[in-house]
Design goal:
alpha/beta, elongated, Rossmann fold, 11-stranded mixed sheet, Dihydrodipicolinate Reductase, domain 2, about 425 residues, 7-stranded mixed sheet, homodimer, about 30% strand, Alpha-Beta Plaits
Chain lengths: ~425, ~425
Amino acid sequence: MRTTGDRATLKVVLLGCGVVGAAVYRLLAEQSADLSARAGAALEVVGVAVRDPGRPRTVTVPPDLLTTDAGALVTRPGVDIVIELMGGIEPARTLLLAALNAGKSVVTANKALLASHSAELHEAARRNNADIYYEAAVAGAIPLLRPLRESLAGDEVRRVLGIVNGTTNYILDKMDTSGADFGAALTEAQDLGYAEKDDPGTDVEGYDAAAKAAILASIAFHTEVTAADVYREGITQVTAADIASARTLGCVVKLLAICERSHGGVSARVYPAMIPREHPLAAVRGAYNAVFVEAESAGRLMFYGAGAGGQPTASAVLGDIVTVVRNRLAGLRGPDASTYAELPLVPIGDALTRYYVQLDVADRPGVLAPIADAFAQHGVSIKAMRQEGRGDDANLLIVTHTAREDDLAQTVASLSAMTAVRKVASVMRVEAEDDE
Amino acid sequence: MRTTGDRATLKVVLLGCGVVGAAVYRLLAEQSADLSARAGAALEVVGVAVRDPGRPRTVTVPPDLLTTDAGALVTRPGVDIVIELMGGIEPARTLLLAALNAGKSVVTANKALLASHSAELHEAARRNNADIYYEAAVAGAIPLLRPLRESLAGDEVRRVLGIVNGTTNYILDKMDTSGADFGAALTEAQDLGYAEKDDPGTDVEGYDAAAKAAILASIAFHTEVTAADVYREGITQVTAADIASARTLGCVVKLLAICERSHGGVSARVYPAMIPREHPLAAVRGAYNAVFVEAESAGRLMFYGAGAGGQPTASAVLGDIVTVVRNRLAGLRGPDASTYAELPLVPIGDALTRYYVQLDVADRPGVLAPIADAFAQHGVSIKAMRQEGRGDDANLLIVTHTAREDDLAQTVASLSAMTAVRKVASVMRVEAEDDE
């Protein structure tokens, strides 16, 4: 830290200058007077680490600031804050540990890293009296981690239920409005730049949402949860027929991240599920994100906004930078990630959910009884059943009450094995509906 | 502060033990282990100031804690935190200034006080190295002030648009769904306890919403805005016919608090306005609150939740208490209310809005031209006009493009004076719609 005139100047380095990095660099320059008035110190960018200094960028960075040697940057004497926007586990992990060990504070948008190495990063921050902030890692611009950690610190969070991946939301939305199948909707999302051309798997297989679920669960329940702890199903198996079935039930299909207190532990899972069309999450379109939080005293809260994109993500990064500067000027650090509760993780088999099951059955007397019996034998209560005849076949639509995942899965297995059941045409979870 | 075993204990006093006070008292006891793990210190309630110690309460407070002498409580040596939940300007103002001057930190839900005496309270806090937090003062349980002040500290807020008063939202919702007029809907709200029996004016005249608008505008625009600076119209003049007109236009009527950057200054206003039925704010029902925030980089964010009630408000109070405890243990205070921008206030006449105007006119040739001319002469552009004949009369529905309030008001005055216009049947602002 250096003082010029009556206000200190803090030195900042950026790791990565892609879409988000460029937006942060530009805003740091454009907003410098406002930022300095709000944070209490001026900010000076003294280095930007990139892979290829010659690559054209959307922002003009003076050539003498660009470097490929990120390792030297994060330990450079005089640097106060390291802003990491390169993504991925390595080399980000090694660089941020080095930065923290050198006493720098860290702001990052790296969800994969935080979802897998949160404990060691927080430990390094604590040991070195430095900060680590990462609001931008979950739900882009939406203020979510700070409200969970601070505003709700006096409440008991029961459940976090959210749409936290814009790519899959865009694809499912497209399938719903146009009747397209998954492949066609993915191609369109890729053409429009909403999904990666080379490797869409991080999004469509649910890895991105699972990382965010881990971060949310950790903060909401004061318990360390990693991405590996999160049960995960992507949307690649969702068919146009599933979407049509959802429509019949007055539902839409969304990829949900669900973190909840259950059986005295924490259940964290990501999968596509039907939600009622009148639920506020059903109205979340395209690349937007929305997160429901249910807390003991506060009741139901919802946070909504842009979940990705350079500018929105940069907004969250800059908010964190202002906080880190205020903390540094005061000679202190923000509240630690609290993991005192150390709640056990609930296996997916014990999670409580509801199922929608669609069966092609023979349309003859005596078919319904053994099917109803299969549900009853596994302790799964049927909420609604509807039969539609079509010549020799009948189409049976069943919605269950809340039950254990394992019991529901075993019910479906029993149904598949029955001769009266020609085909289990569709199976999907139903969430966000109050069960009576 | 006193240390027992390995954890400090902070002493807390409560001013007021009504619905919110009782909820806070109960949660402080019930959640004490969790609160102490999260805040880093145990909390001990050492006094509760009430008007009538003999009055029955929903929570059991030991008689020796109850006192009518709030003045002695707020300066009592050893007390760390004063929680004010009595409401109203005096004696709350005098008591909180005394508390701050005695070095106590303050948590309050008092919107009227913060909207009128923010500057002197923050100044007293700063001078005495104490905190003042008041998340519960606006939108109950919804984390809103902390996100605005901290998460968006690196962004430029352009607009805050919200439903921040549950009573008026309940009444307008009732009028919309049942066709009831204002009087009948108010009586029902009073019978259900949503509106005050004796003095519903604070809510229905918009004073409560205006106080919240002042607090929101101050934080969003880094400028001191008081309740007196907020233009205010309540909902007492809203008729069943207005609600029906809104319905014809695909809109609902909501009491909105609007704070925006405009003409290089800040416009803060509260009035009933039509918003499109598909806008997310239109779906906010009953006593719920929701606030839209539009920021330069973040884009559009929405915060939604319970806007009032003992438990939800207590959730926000407890979140602030945890923050104050963490700050006190670290020997510091939270970020100050920032008023560096000192933006001028835009008079209501210069505010930009759109109008819906309904006219009863004579149904004869040549009527439309002078009416259209009245709009043109005041520089107000018409977006849509529809005429419905009824015998000798015609009903003319006009929606304008965005224009200055003064120009719109003068247009309406000109229309009223025209002989062809039998009656200006309805005039209402239209908000939350993108203008083309």
